Amino acid sequence: MIALARKIGLPTGIGIVYLIMTLFFGLPLLWLFSAAFSKVTGIAWAWPTALTFNNFSGVFKNPGVGLSFFNAGIYSIASALVALFLAALAGYPLSRFRFRGRLAYMLSILFITGLPITAMIVPMYEMFLRLGWVNTRWAVVLMMGALATPISIWLLKAFIDSVDPALEEASWVDGANRLGGYFRIIVPLMRPGLVVVFILNFLGSWSNFYVPFVLFSSTSKLPVAVTIYEFFGNYGQVYYGQLAAFSLLYSVPVIGLYLLSGGRLGSTLNVGGVKG
Amino acid sequence: MIGLRHDAVPERTRRYRVSQEAKWGLTFLSLPSVVIVFFLGFPVAWGIYISLTNLALTGADAVHPSFVGLTNYTELFTSPSFWLSVKASMEYLIGSGLVGQVGLGLALALLIRRLPVGFRQFLMGLIVLSWVIPEIVTAFIWSSYLQTPGGLFDVVVGLFGIVPQSWLYRYPMTFLILANIWRGTAFSLLVFGAAIEAIPKELFDAAQIDGANGVSILGRIILPLIRNSMATALVLITLWTLSDFTLIYVLTAGGPGYATDVLPVFIYQNSFTYYELGYGTALSVVLLLIASGLSLLYLRLVGRDY
After folding, report:
1. Best mutation target, B1, B20, B26, B36, to test chain A (most A CBs within 10 A)
2. ipTM of the predicted assembly exceeds 0.85
3. Which residues on chain A are in Cβ contact (under 8 Å) with B6?
4. A180 lies in a domain?
5. What is the pTM of this model?
6. Is residue A183 included in any domain, yes or no?
7. Concatenated DSSP letters for A179-240?
């Protein structure tokens, strides 16, 4: 590879760094793919000599796995939509108006984004218990939506910033009020931003383990994040192949959505960016 | 109204417009704010109250907790295990968050620009894939990857004559840090990459004509211009790293001893293993304070205009 690097005119130093980085990031992924498709079972790693899909079919023999994928899909879509709607509302005045407390609002949101879920889980559970919301799908969806809202506001605001205010001013003249003008004129223009934020929220909820783990009590309502953890706890140390296959299946929607969004996920994350 | 410039608007109209803005601002902000306060703010506030009681998960103190003032806090600050936990959290934050994700992310963002397209896409693909897969899967991957004897890591380092050992037992923090760098570097790489991409090319050309070297281009052009992205990345990565639980819990569960007993794991143990919810939430409040203190510090240091 270093010889190759030199052939294409890269300095040797960069070639070596590239090789190390490729190994560092690539090897764990190699384990995941080889263990999932390999006929070799057991802990010791070996190059896969023959491919098999037995591990994948084996995963679905465990009761409740199929249902947990369906559950996770529903929760993730619903909570992503909740967060998107709330963020679209809040992002507008934060982008367009200069009011007192705006900076404080933005900073609080940035802070809430990183609130440790471990720090909130106990009072959260207490709250759900007293309201009788434990083991209730819609309440858990709202909770996950609320968790995704702050970062969505932060990201969507940047998209609203990039839409020319003159466009919505024109709509007021036509008699639309701010709310109507915003949802009719601006929101459609932000479609790429909305898609990216929706995908990010979906991914966040799909990967959320803690909230459903604590707030659901019946097995039939659990999303994949929790069933895969229980699978690992029960069989993970023995059935490496199945664990890898389960992990891949769980990751497929995430990887697929990322690819679907193209490079836009990256540029969205340039929150703030360079001021011109 | 179209075409009127702000300074041409009469005083009365302008005041009318400001109050209109206030009205619409409230309309737009009310629903999101209520949801955030109810679902996120309220649990935090209630957590602060619980931390002043002796609430337990089971027994009499679960039903009728009593107010104990700052007892949980004094107990905590005099407990050696708390300070070991703070130490573990700081090692994890500095190693995997600041040096790892922010430092390596910036270095890779600079490196990757110099690579031919195919090479760049291949490495970016690997890094982003490591990032998008769910955290719990990352934990499974690293637990199996480091399995000894016979794990893939053993096989690879064996090529260099390194003897297999229980990596997570001998060097627990080092390997946790590596696993978290593996998982999280894509975020800062994408943020910095996009910010550097947005710097006008003429600036680099001009610097090169003036004979600037790589270091001064980095220090005088790149870093000042990506300051905003830097502040955001620092704050978010710090908050995320400090609250990281799943990866550590699955890989080492805080051990051996207190070597990797970072605050979220310590909180979990106190709340759900020892059933001391009051004490556990007092720890949570301390974690929140550390996180907010660091965030404010970065914003002050790196600065940022909104």
Report:
1. B36
2. no
3. none
4. no
5. 0.81
6. no
7. HHHIIIIIHHHTHHHHHHHHHHHHHHHHH--HHHHHH--SGGG--HHHHHHHHIIIIITT-H
